[in-house]
Specification:
With 212 residues, this protein is α+β, with helices and mostly antiparallel strands. It has five helices and nine strands. The protein has two domains: 109 residues, TATA-Binding Protein; 75 residues. The chain is 46% helix and 20% strand. The strands form three sheets. A five-stranded antiparallel sheet has the order 1-5-4-3-2, with helices on one face. Strands 6-7 form a two-stranded antiparallel sheet. A two-stranded antiparallel ribbon has the order 8-9. A hairpin with a 2-residue loop joins strand 2 and strand 3. The termini are far apart.
């Protein structure tokens, strides 16, 4: 297996870790599915967004996390597991790795009211407490940037407009859970318009070729 593995001593309450992990997985579009005989969290599943995978557990104050990526070769056909290093797909893999590192940093934040036992592990506070959750602002920014670029370039190069428009839709949808959801929404609108224009221009170009 080629996986990015984290074994981090947290000594945090179980419910806090579970909340933070669920918050991260939800905001990044992960679903709990069976894949290759194993129950995993998976996000993405196409050529435009590299499929990303994750499994995690928390026991005795230690977080164990394994993350990896695969390339989609054909529908339902994936490459072998890929570590979050290497040149191919480096932008997507590095972003995923950075998200995981940020998550671990957030998991170390102080939990107000938690009590430490003699064994060193933090016990949950019976009262609700405020914690800093995962923010997907970078995806809102990516979505807006790709969306604007797609809207400009689609008039000249339809295929590029279509590609960047789809990328913008993917990132903008993730960014709509962030504090900058307005940027994500603006990027999504630009991307949808770009995809529609690109599709029409590509269709007209193909039709013109066949008519000739």
């Amino acid at each position: 297996m080629a996986r990015f593995v984290i074994d981090e001593v947290l000594n945090q309450p179980d419910d806090f870790v579970a909340y933070m992990m669920n918050d991260f997985l939800t905001k990044h579009g992960f679903s709990y599915v069976e894949f290759k005989g194993q129950m995993v969290f998976r996000a993405g599943g196409g050529w435009f967004e590299m499929p990303k995978f994750l499994v995690w557990s928390y026991s005795n104050g230690v977080l164990h996390l394994e993350a990896w990526a695969r390339y989609l070769i054909l529908p339902g056909v994936y490459s072998k597991e890929k570590h979050l290093e290497g040149f191919y797909g480096i932008v997507v893999k590095q972003a995923y790795k950075n998200d995981l590192i940020q998550l671990v940093q957030l998991l170390h934040q102080p939990v107000a009211g938690a009590q430490q036992t003699a064994g060193g592990q933090m016990q949950p506070n019976p009262q609700p407490v405020m914690v800093q959750g995962v923010d997907t602002v970078r995806y809102a920014n990516f979505g807006l940037g790709f969306g604007i670029f797609a809207l400009v370039i689609c008039w000249f190069m339809g295929w590029f407009g279509l590609f960047f428009g789809i990328m913008a839709i993917i990132y903008a949808n993730k960014g709509r859970t962030s504090a900058k959801k307005g940027r994500a929404t603006a990027g999504l609108v630009c991307a949808i318009i770009a995809v529609v224009i690109s599709s029409i221009l590509i269709f007209l170009y193909a039709a013109n070729i066949f008519i000739r």
